[in-house]
Every structure is written in C-alpha cells, then in structure tokens.
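Lecture notes, continued. The same structure-token format from the folding unit now serves as the input rather than the output. Read the line below as a description of shape only.
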C-alpha cells in the first residue's frame, strides 16, 4: 500500500464550494522542543513553532485543532506581535501528529492560555536574530536597530525580513532554556494583540477549499459504515447475516473487527464502493450479538447509583478538605441542603465522526479531525500492533468538536478496517451512528450543604458530585490525588472548588462506576463545570434566600478574596476580587433591583470558568419570562461581563463568548437525552432538540480591559448561563427547578409546590 497520493482540492469543487458559490449567486501543556535555528532552502526556523520564508512569509505551526474558534489566528497573532511581523505576511499550518510537538490537545480552554508565553518567547527569539543579522547587513550597531512590520531599520536604512533570510547567515540557535528566559514586550508596546484583525482561516471556509475530515479521499479507497453494538462495552459478535445486503449495488462485504485495544468491542464494518451503498447495505445487514452486562441499564439506574455513592461519606476523593467542616455543621444555627441533577447530554457536532485510514511507506495514516492526537495514538498502536512512530494522524478542520473529538476513538475502527481489507478505508458514521457511538456527558447528581452561624454568617459548605468520569476511563494519567490520597477526575469536579469564602469547605468527587461501565463518558464543552456550576450558583441563590439576603449582596460578601481566595500570579492575580468586580459591573449594567414586568425575572450567576489555576472571571444575568399557565420559559436577554485577562483576538473572543453562552442556554432548556436499554434514547435532531434560531435571545458581552495573563474563553460562558436562567425562573415565578434541562412540566410542577 505504498505511494498512495492524496487527492488535492480541485480548482472548483462541485460539493461544498460549488454549493456556496451557487447560494451566493442566488442571494500542555506543549512540549518546549529546542529550536532548529535552521537556515533551510525555504527559509529560517528560529524555533519549531514557525518559519520565515525568503519572501518574508511567516508560517506559524499550529498544533491546536480548528473547529470554528479561529485558534490558528490567535496563536499566530501572539507570534507575529513579538516577532514584529507584517500581519499580511503571516500564514498558519495545522500540523500532523509528531513526537516533536509534545502534547497535542485542544480542549479545556487551554489553547491561548498555554500558547501565550511559549509563542511570545519564540517570537522574541526570531526578532532578536533578525535584528542582529539585519544590523550586520546594514552595517550598523544592533543596538541602534529596531524591528517593525517585517523590517529591520537603523542608521537611516532598512532591510526586510525576507532579504535578511535570503542574504544573511541565519545560523543562530537558542536552547529551550534560553528561549524560556527571553523577556517579552510590555502591554504598552503590543501592536497586534488585542487589536481587530481578520481571521486567517475564513477565506478557505468561505470558498470551500478548507478541508474537513469528510473531504479526505485517496484513489482506490472503499467506504465503510459501522453496525453499532447494543452496548458500548462487552458486546461480542455471534453471527453476521449479509444475505439481504448483497442485493445492494456496490456492496462488498461485512466483517467483525478484532480490536486488541478494546476501543470498539462488538463492531461490524460494512464495506461498499460508495458511502450511499455502504449505508444502504448496513441497514440490511443483520448482526446477532451477545450484549454486555449493561444492556438493561437506564438513566434512572445511573442516577440512583450516583445518589447511593454520595450517601457513602467514604466514597470518592476529597478535592478540598478543610479542618472543622463536620464541627461547623454540628454547631450550626441553621443548615441548608439541596440536590441538583443533570441529564445525559450529547455532542451532536455538525460533522459526524469519520476517518480515512491506509498504509503508506510502512506508516498507517489516519486522515481525520481530532482534538487530542496524543491520546489516541497509544490506542491505535495497541489496536494495530505497531509502534506509535509508525502511525500518523493527518490534521483536518473539524466540523464541530465541542469535546467529542478529544476522544479520537473513531480512528481505531477505520485503521482496523484498513488493516483487515488491505486497502484504504473511509469510515463515515451517520447521524444516528454518531449519537449511539457518542462519548456523551454523563448524567450527574450533586448534594450541596451549607451551615449558618450567628447572624446568618456562613460557617461551612459541603459539596459532593457523582457522575461518570471521562478522564478515569480514557486518560487516568491526568488524575491528581485528593486529600485522602484517592485519585479523581479534575474535569468532573472543576468549578466546585470555587472562590467564595464559606468557612470550612469540603468538596468530594465521586465516580459513578455504573456509568463508567455502561458507556464511555466524554468531555463535553465545559465538562464538569457544566454541572458543578449549575449546583453552586443555583445553591448560592437558595442560600441567600434562606439567609434573608439579596442574591447579589450575598455573593459579593463571600467574594472577599480572603485566604486561599486571594489569588496568585501568574494567572489568578487578584483572585476573588476580580470575580466580585465582574459581578458588580454586571449588576450595574442590567439594573439589578429594578422593577420588571409581571412573570419576568432577572437571574444572576458568576463563576471562574474552568480551573482555579486558569480562572476566567465571568458573570451572567438572564432575563426570562415564565408563562404560569404552561410553564414555558422564554429567555429574553443574556448579558455577560468577563475578565479574561489580555484579549489576544477580540473578534475570536467575542465569537467564543456568544457561542458558549448559546450552548449553555441550549443545555439549560433544550438539550438532554435519556439512557435507556444500554444506549441513548435520542439519535437524531428530530427528538434531540438543541436551541433553534427562533429561540436565540439578545446577547450583550462586555470584556473588562486588562493586561493580566490571557486565559481561556472557549467554555466559561457555557457554565454560567444555566444557573442564571434557573435563578431567573425563580425570580419570575417563585418556581425553583433543580434539574437540567429545564422542561416546562418541571416548571409547572415547581409552581404548584413553591409554597
């Protein structure tokens, strides 16, 4: 299977690009590898992160996946600012998997946060070298030279970066340690960061030349569609009957995959010469399976198990365990306890998962969109029985990710299929296949308690959360240990370790073993904070009510930045004071405390996004109307104030905030499925109903001006909208809902019992 050429994009593709033209006409933590310092024929590479061509073009290597967030533009902006490059000469290259890039992952709102110091110093290394070599060519002292817009100037003369690379001796190298010590510009000297700019990937997306996983093709490939087994784990193929499928023109065969990695147990792949044929034949192939032991597991079973585990005080990991929690509750003048739950939630990204796999020159190539290349490579190595350096993941744009493609499990069956048939295989899942194979967000149960002392003073808080743990199932090496020396999934509890000063605090994370066995829990945009912040911020409103205090005043009093909530450099400077500031600004912006029409309410929520070492301070006000006759909830407006430190790419930041806010609203009111009979109940967008355009409210976003370290923006708004809506429903109607998604019948039931 050697020397298989990849089909290049045609001059005018008749599929997506042709469609677009017709419509228009009608109306980690990254590894810090040592730089190459190479003056190759095509130019100069000050570090592995970018190269400067002889024509002056700067090409930035991007290891982050592009899924609509314009991450390449933000990262290139960081490099170009410090390099003093002409933005019109900057390009991006989304690179394929290779050990030299270190950890390749796009998630957790980490991309800009982790890239900023590394890419800034990489840019500084190039600028220093260009000034030194440019000064030699100009015959002036380097100290008399400056760099600006891809030019080095000094002594009344100038020379372009392209000419320096072409004519100079570009041999200077820097060690990783040297690069790490390079100073970067003060905020006052930034010329690109924080300024409006065009997104570098938009032209290709608009004209149809952008390549997504579904676009990948090679000569001689066959198509495949999977038969999804009755349970994610433990299913085994007993027999395959493809007699009816043989009548489908183009049908080739069906086979059960042998997967040593146990990524896709019980999978049957149906092959044909086109996807239409493969899909039609797949519907006709009959497979008899012996199912795993969770074939009868339901959503109710999963939630019952979570409640049982929380009831055991010894279960799980103690993420926070302050002295005196039990004593504070024992001595409390009053106590409050509430239970909050969330349903299973699917990803339903626009592009269903797919992968093209084939062997070329002794290397198995998998062409697909992926968010965490470093995670899937070991699975592929085990499945294929070959070393990781004989496998490469070719990067493509993602037609939506939202955390689904952090789990690149779909690459495994494509690679196994290609190995089995000895030719290139393009595996494509239908929407229903994708839903059944989804690593969806686990349902969750949380119990939150608060103790009050004299004068309603908060003296203790206890928060226990139970759900399926994606990191435990797929990336246990990412799990730290709690105070009781038990490992926990940080992505299943982040957000519960909040910045409120609540006296003695306990946070307990509990894994739902039944959920982990029944399906493969996944990371979904915002992950744990999608449920932990729902509980924390709903509870803060309820605690304020119990204490007889205004919800805004109650929160602000607890955001006093005392003790460990004072914050620290480099990412959490100011601590809870910055969270209090965005909340106070929001309250003023929306006129908190003003008179509203009947059945209309304003709800507040505030949080810090994801993790304490990367806080994005955010507050949201939701204005909603509740129909007391039907329980229907209409969100009229969402207002958000955010302090994300330095904003690298304003347009991209705004898009992230708006998209995340709408995602949060969708999960709050519209999205949710039931696990039933070992599988998710909803497999298409007729019964699984995300937010529709007609339901989109007015959205207003304000960024706090800041020169602090840039932090994440992909997910924080997702976590704060749900509780703001829940609190607004209460203020509009007196109905308190404690389950996501919020359905009208639940609001009606709460209205009947609100007394």
């Amino acid at each position: 299977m050697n020397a298989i050429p990849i089909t290049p994009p045609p001059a005018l593709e008749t599929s997506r690009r042709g469609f677009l033209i017709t419509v228009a006409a009608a109306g980690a933590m990254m590894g810090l590898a040592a730089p190459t310092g190479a003056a190759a024929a095509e130019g100069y590479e000050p570090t592995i992160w970018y190269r400067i061509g002889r024509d002056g073009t700067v090409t930035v290597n991007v290891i982050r996946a592009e899924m609509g967030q314009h991450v390449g533009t933000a990262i290139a902006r960081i490099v170009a600012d410090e390099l003093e490059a002409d933005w019109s000469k900057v390009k991006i290259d989304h690179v394929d998997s290779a050990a030299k890039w270190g950890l390749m992952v796009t998630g957790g709102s980490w991309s800009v946060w982790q890239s900023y110091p590394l890419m800034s110093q990489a840019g500084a290394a190039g600028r220093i070298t260009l000034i030194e070599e440019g000064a030699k060519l100009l015959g002036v002292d380097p100290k008399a030279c400056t760099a600006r817009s891809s030019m080095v100037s000094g002594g009344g003369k100038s020379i372009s970066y392209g000419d320096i690379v072409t004519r100079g001796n570009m041999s200077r190298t820097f060690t990783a340690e040297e690069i790490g010590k390079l100073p970067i510009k003060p905020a006052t000297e930034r010329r690109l960061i924080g300024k409006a700019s065009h997104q570098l990937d938009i032209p290709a997306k608009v004209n149809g030349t952008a390549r997504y996983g579904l676009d990948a093709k090679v000569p001689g490939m066959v198509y495949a569609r999977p038969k999804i087994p009755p349970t994610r784990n433990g299913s085994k193929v007993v027999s395959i009957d493809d007699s009816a499928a043989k009548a489908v023109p183009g049908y080739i065969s069906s086979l059960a995959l042998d997967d040593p990695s146990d990524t896709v147990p019980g999978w049957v792949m149906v092959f044909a010469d086109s996807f239409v044929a493969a899909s039609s034949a797949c519907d006709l192939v009959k497979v008899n399976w012996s199912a795993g032991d969770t074939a009868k597991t339901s959503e109710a079973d999963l939630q019952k198990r979570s409640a049982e585990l929380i009831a055991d005080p010894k279960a799980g990991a103690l993420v926070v365990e302050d002295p005196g929690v039990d004593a504070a509750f024992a001595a409390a003048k009053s106590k409050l306890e509430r239970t909050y739950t969330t349903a299973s939630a699917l990803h339903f990204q626009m592009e269903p998962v797919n992968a093209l796999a084939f062997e070329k020159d002794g290397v198995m190539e998998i062409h697909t969109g992926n968010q965490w290349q470093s995670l899937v490579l070991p699975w592929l190595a085990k499945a294929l029985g070959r070393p990781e350096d004989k496998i490469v993941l070719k990067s493509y744009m993602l037609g939506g990710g939202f955390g689904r493609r952090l789990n690149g499990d779909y690459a495994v069956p494509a690679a196994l299929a290609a190995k089995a048939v000895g030719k290139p295989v393009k595996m494509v899942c239908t929407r229903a296949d994708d839903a059944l194979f989804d690593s969806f967000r686990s349902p969750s149960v949380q119990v939150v308690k608060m103790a009050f002392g004299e004068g309603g003073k908060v003296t203790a808080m206890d928060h226990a959360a139970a759900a399926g743990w994606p990191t435990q199932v797929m990336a246990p090496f990412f799990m730290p240990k709690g105070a009781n020396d038990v490992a926990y999934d940080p992505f299943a509890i982040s957000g519960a370790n909040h910045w409120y000063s609540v006296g003695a605090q306990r946070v307990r994370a509990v894994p739902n073993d039944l959920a982990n066995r029944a399906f493969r829990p996944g990371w979904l945009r915002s992950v744990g904070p999608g449920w932990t912040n729902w509980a924390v911020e709903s509870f803060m409103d309820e605690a304020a009510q119990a204490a007889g205090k205004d919800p805004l005043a109650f929160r602000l009093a607890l955001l006093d930045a005392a003790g460990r909530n004072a914050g620290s450099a480099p990412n959490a400077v100011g601590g809870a004071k910055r969270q209090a500031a965005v909340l106070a600004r929001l309250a003023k912006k929306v006129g908190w405390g003003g008179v509203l029409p009947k059945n209309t309410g304003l709800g507040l929520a505030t949080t810090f996004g994801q993790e304490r070492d990367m806080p994005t301070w955010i507050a949201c006000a939701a204005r909603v109307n509740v129909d007391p006759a039907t329980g229907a909830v209409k969100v009229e407006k969402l207002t958000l104030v955010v302090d994300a430190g330095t904003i690298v790419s304003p347009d991209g930041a705004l898009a992230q905030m708006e998209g995340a806010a709408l995602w949060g609203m969708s999960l709050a009111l519209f999205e949710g499925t039931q696990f039933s009979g070992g599988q998710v109940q909803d497999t298409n967008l007729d019964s699984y109903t995300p937010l529709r355009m007609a339901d989109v409210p007015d959205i207003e976003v304000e960024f706090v001006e800041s020169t602090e370290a840039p932090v994440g923006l992909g997910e924080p708004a997702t976590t704060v909208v749900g509780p703001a809506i829940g609190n607004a429903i209460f203020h509009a109607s007196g109905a308190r809902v404690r389950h996501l998604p919020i359905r009208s019948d639940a609001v009606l039931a709460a209205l009947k019992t609100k007394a």
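Point for the exam: Residues 1-35 have pLDDT under 50 and may be disordered.
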